[in-house]
Amino acid sequence: PPAHSHSDWIGPPDQHSNLRPVIFYVPPEESALERRLREARQEAQASNQRFWARHNRAFRQEKEEFIYSRLKAKGLEMRDESGNKATLNAEEMADFYKDFLSKNLKKHLQYNRDWYKRNFRITFLMGQVALVRALRWLRWRKKNVGQ
């Protein structure tokens, strides 16, 4: 982002996680509380990035292996006569999706627990930052209205 920017910048989706990375704006006079909030948001983003990149990589790999094994069991190749990639029908793919989700249920539950904890912390810090800013504004207003 340009040096004069005063907001967060959101990039294009990451090729592995499909999440859009955020470059967080750092105000020149960032308070310790505001820094804690920004760092919590950055850690949440990094954690989400790691989880979804790993998850999507495993999903693609297992999907390819599933398709290959099903095609092989049918005596088919990965490519048909015209060179196009062979596919399975929706019912066969539904079996894969169901098995993949069942196999990864514990990982998803742990991810959701961690996600809620992070977001609760971020929300709490956002509330604290908002309160400090509101009190600062009220003190400024009281000082300037009296003049």
Automatic annotation (TrEMBL):
The GO cellular component terms are: mitochondrial inner membrane
Q: Does the keyword rRNA processing apply?
A: no
Q: Mind telling me which InterPro entries this protein's record contains?
A: COA8 (IPR018796)
- Annotated localization: Mitochondrion inner membrane
Q: Name one Pfam family in it.
A: COA8
A GO biological process this protein is involved in?
intrinsic apoptotic signaling pathway
Record membrane topology: Peripheral membrane protein
Q: Cite the entry's keywords alphabetically.
A: Membrane, Mitochondrion, Mitochondrion inner membrane, Transit peptide
Residue spans making up a coiled coil are none
Checking PANTHER family in the record gives:
APOPTOGENIC PROTEIN 1, MITOCHONDRIAL, CYTOCHROME C OXIDASE ASSEMBLY FACTOR 8
- Family according to the record: Belongs to the COA8 family.
Protein name, UniProt field:
APOP1 protein
The encoding gene is Apopt1
